[in-house]
Design brief:
The chain is mainly beta and 534 residues long. The chain has a 4-stranded mixed beta sheet, with helices on one face. It is elongated.
Length: 534
């Protein structure tokens, strides 16, 4: 009896057995698939759902291989191609296509209106017919599962440039015509115009529309105009080209002087039909060039340019460049950021006369002291960099004087103090007063002396020794003029108390009587940016 109760107590109860079986089933169901076992995954690709079996431990890439699906190089997968799969995973493949398309696009021409005072008010004249341009544009399109996701231009090739339509519109002003001596030319809208005898007599002498204004000067007899034109090559290959044109011809034809990249200096050599010029090397970085500081001579009669001065460093800040100035008797002075002197044109070397404290502009340009000869060849007028009170360093000084260097007694004096860095002195022709021959100096006076780099200026005139200085133009209650070299008329007119001085003010040509201080506006279209008078 006792044994039977013991045996019955050792038998498993049905409820406990069920619990053990459930635990065993859970353990089996949660067990990770073992290597070699098969798992089932679902693939959604190309609008079709595929169920495939792969070996446990396979990657998404291997699942695509098992389903005979080949992903493209840009296709995306979720989960990623490298992910290890589990049983029951769902894989989504997104098809990504990259398509390049090229199309040609017409570029409409622009219409430019140029005011011209030689035409009556309201009259129009077609100067250049407009021509549409053509571009070839390559687009990159990204397409996901057949739908365009993005479209971007990746390359543009100009097949042909658009040419603007240029219409000249009459804007004849009511300014009173003035008689003028000599030949006066001006640059407006990229073209060169000439006035002879009267400001009412104007004609076009260069109509290419591409004069850049870096060089624009007349020969001493006014017969030829020297000028530079923009190059049609990329700026880092060629900046401009040097040309001349005979002003007396009814249909002037420009003459190319076989010179390139002339930025700072080109001038007629006195007494000759030759031109001296200096060059730079174009650069893709600011300021757009590296100065050679050289000097060449070329003749209008032909022949290749001849070197007068070898390329050199140009001293402090010489990368910007240097400029030159001929006296009437053919001597040549030079100016660079740190020095002024003479050029030995036969020996091909520089003869320094005085050192200049260079200006540190803290920028991509450098200041070159303006220079000009007196008409008697005995004095060189220049702008000097004056010192500033301590603790301002010499190269940081904001002060500049108009000075003179005499070749008669080797005196070097400051003629006018605090004129500004862009005073641009200009000497009048010699006039006879009884037994004495005299001349005057026109120069610019900065309105804001300590900010002369950005200041506007007023036109001043003085006797050659600095006395009798007076303001000419514009009036004190008007804005000043932009930095430029004032130009004297070659001769005074009968009944005129002084000589005319020509300046550009607000884009127009003005003539100022240095004797009566009367100013005359000559043009009104606001397009003028350079003038020359001989």
């Amino acid at each position: 009896m006792h044994r039977s109760r013991l045996n019955s107590s050792l038998k498993p109860r049905p409820s406990l057995l069920l619990i053990l079986l459930a635990i065993l089933w859970l353990m089996v169901s949660c067990r990770s698939p073992q290597i070699g076992e098969k798992i089932t995954v679902t693939i959604n690709a190309d609008g079709v759902e595929k169920i495939v079996q792969v070996t446990a431990g396979s990657t998404v890439t291997q699942a695509f291989q098992a389903a005979a699906i080949i992903p493209g190089s840009l296709d995306r997968s979720e989960p990623p191609f490298y992910a290890i799969l589990n049983d029951g995973d769902i894989i989504t493949l997104t098809r990504v296509d990259e398509v390049f398309e090229t199309e040609q696009v017409v570029v409409p021409f622009e219409r430019q209106i140029v005011r011209n005072e030689t035409l009556p008010e309201g009259e129009t004249r077609l100067v250049q017919a407009g021509v549409n341009g053509l571009q070839e544009i390559t687009y990159r399109r990204i397409i996901e599962n057949g739908a365009e996701l993005s479209k971007n231009a990746v390359k543009t090739v100009v097949m042909s440039e658009a040419l603007p339509e240029i219409v000249m519109v009459g804007a004849q002003a009511s300014f009173t015509p003035l008689n003028i001596p000599g030949t006066l030319v001006y640059l407006a809208g990229g073209n060169a115009w000439i006035m002879e005898g009267s400001t009412a007599n104007r004609r076009l002498i260069v109509s290419t529309g591409d004069l850049d204004g870096r060089v624009f000067t007349l020969s001493p007899n006014g017969e030829y105009l020297l000028f530079t034109r923009k190059s049609n090559k990329p700026a880092d290959e060629e900046i401009n080209t040097l040309w001349a044109v005979r002003t007396k011809n009814i249909e002037p034809k420009p003459i190319w002087l076989q010179a390139y990249n002339v930025v700072h200096f080109a001038q007629w050599i006195p007494g000759t039909n030759s031109v001296a010029y200096s060059t730079v090397e174009p650069r893709g970085t600011s300021p757009g060039w590296q100065a050679n500081n050289d000097l060449y001579r070329v003749s209008l009669t032909g022949g290749s340019p001849r070197k007068l001065l070898d390329a050199n460093s140009g001293g402090v800040y010489g990368w910007w460049g240097m400029t030159f100035s001929y006296s009437d008797d053919g001597r040549l002075a030079y100016s660079r950021p740190d020095q002024i002197g003479l050029v030995d044109q036969d020996g091909g070397y520089l003869k320094p006369l005085l050192n200049i404290t260079p200006l540190n502009t803290h920028s991509d340009w450098s200041w070159i002291p303006p220079i000009t000869w007196g008409p008697d060849g005995k004095t060189l007028f220049y702008v000097s960099h004056a010192p500033a009170p301590a603790p301002i360093l010499g190269e940081e000084s904001p002060y500049f004087d108009l000075s003179a260097l005499s070749f008669s007694n080797e005196a070097n004096i400051a003629v006018v103090g605090s004129t500004g860095m862009f005073s641009y002195p200009s000497a009048s022709p010699i006039r006879s007063t009884g037994r004495e021959k005299v001349f005057q100096i026109a120069y610019l006076q900065a309105i804001f002396v300590e900010q002369s780099e950005t200041s506007r200026y007023r036109l001043m005139v003085m006797d050659r020794d600095g006395s009798n200085s007076r303001a000419l133009f514009p009036p004190a209650d008007s804005g000043g003029i932009e930095p430029q070299t004032p130009l004297w008329s070659p001769d005074p007119l009968e009944g005129q108390t002084g000589d005319f001085i020509a300046v550009v003010y607000q884009g127009n040509l003005w003539l100022v009587d240095s004797g009566s201080l009367t100013a005359y506006q000559v043009t009104g279209d606001g397009l003028i940016n350079r003038i020359a008078w001989e």
